[in-house]
Write a structure and sequence with these properties.
166 residues; alpha+beta; 4 helices; 9 strands
């Protein structure tokens, strides 16, 4: 697994021995049931923390269709972008989720799936915090260790779900 961190972004990437179509079907799945973007442990905890500090800590249900689409609300996320493009450069597909939580800035989770070789793919995730104001800048520094842990655990969950075909 590849790990990269900067002050605003935390990235994780894994190469998987499965076709990109298979991985994408799990990453962007909008069917009912347990989904990585709702049920991963760190995201459940984040929702609880949001409720404790006066946020909505929403638990929007999954829309129950094969793939998420722009505008869907799931867990505490709003689906900002879905690029389901074998026609995109390199066949890259991208799911961009924006957190609807109490935070001094915008939290974005981007997941990409790119074909890699004849039968494999690369799954990459980036958590990004774009702070608002002085409080956001201080939060950016204070939140870095937690963001690292969240990125690691969420990435492991999505990789596990893809490998298990859930």
């Amino acid at each position: 697994m590849l790990r990269r961190t900067s002050l605003r972004t935390t990235r994780r990437a894994s190469t998987l021995p499965l076709p990109a179509d298979h991985a994408w079907a799990v990453v962007a799945c909008g069917l009912e049931g347990s989904r990585w973007y709702v049920d991963a442990g760190p995201l459940v905890v984040r929702g609880l923390i949001d409720r404790l500090v006066g946020g909505g800590g929403r638990r929007w249900s999954v829309p129950d269709r094969p793939l998420l689409v722009r505008g869907d609300t799931v867990g505490f996320w709003r689906v900002w972008e879905v690029t389901d493009g074998p026609g995109e450069p390199g066949g890259t597909r991208r799911l961009v989720l924006v957190a609807d939580v109490r935070s001094p800035g915008r939290v974005t989770l981007t997941t990409t799936v790119t074909p890699d070789g004849a039968s494999g793919c690369r799954l990459e995730q980036e958590v990004r915090l774009d702070p608002d104001g002085l409080v956001g800048a201080a939060y950016l520094l204070a939140d870095l260790p937690a963001r690292e842990a969240v990125a690691e655990l969420v990435h492991r969950r999505v990789v596990g779900d893809v490998l298990q075909g859930r």
